Amino acid sequence: MTDVTCALISNDEGLIMAVRRGPSMGNAGMWEFPGGKTRPGEDHEDCIIREIDEELGMSIIITGSLDIVEYDYGDKQIRLIPFICETLSSVPLLREHDEYRWMRPEELSTLDMTAADIPVARQYSELYRSGKTEEHEPAEFIEPVEAGEEMTRLLGRIFSVEEITMVAHSAVNDPSLLSQLITLSSSREKRVGFMASWALSKVSDIDPEIMSPFLAMLVDALPGVPNESVQRSFMRVIMRSDIGKIPGSCHAPLIEYCIGIMREENTPVAPKVYGMEILASFCSIYPDLVNEVSAVVQLAMHDASSGMRAAARKVIQRIGSRQ
Hints:
The chain has 323 residues and is an alpha+beta fold.
């Protein structure tokens, strides 16, 4: 029986990535969740992080797991070990597979999936249905005219990565649209704030420099952001930006904020990882921070998931080189 790991990778909208096996792979043309075989002596958690990096060039954070699936393909028997993950990347680099899709959990059953992946997809879909919240439901939203009624309605109708990426590309070339997204990211309506901040995160993927004039505003807004999704997007924009472009007056509040969320036990994984990366960048400006940042990162590793520990080890290695 061969141990094989796979990852159900979700993006900020809760869509799951499926990949299609390329012509050089067995079961070519069939869909699956990315992953691979565990090496001798390798932990399952370390395996899936390595495999996703090798196959897709993506960083992931493990947030949970599903029941193991055993399957006999005739010529081989496998134990498929599924992990629920979040991604720190948006577009995969396909090295073995020839196509990828971001899909709603209930849509996974429409794919022609490999036999072992079918029960994994079923498990996740059932888990999603049982835990589904109102935040994922479409709704109508009303915003003041100055915030951009048309943009508000548009954001309320978006449900795909492709659509939000199109908005981001438009914002890169339209300062007025970018300004509207900044304003709407602080909307009291959770979905509008989420979608606007997600678009800003995509803008930073396209051209981080464009977000430089707004970094101080994002830092000031962080302590009062309306929901976790907005917090995550703001921190991701800051993480991807040149730390030197953040005004000096914002440094101390941002450092204090990041250290604070690192110390909080209930902080979700993604903001903690972004906080670690931001603090590591500040260590290049303020070498005296290294010891404190190392201590708070090590504290965050206590009882953390393997994915979180792996990310923390990279940060400690990164700032350790500055001592």
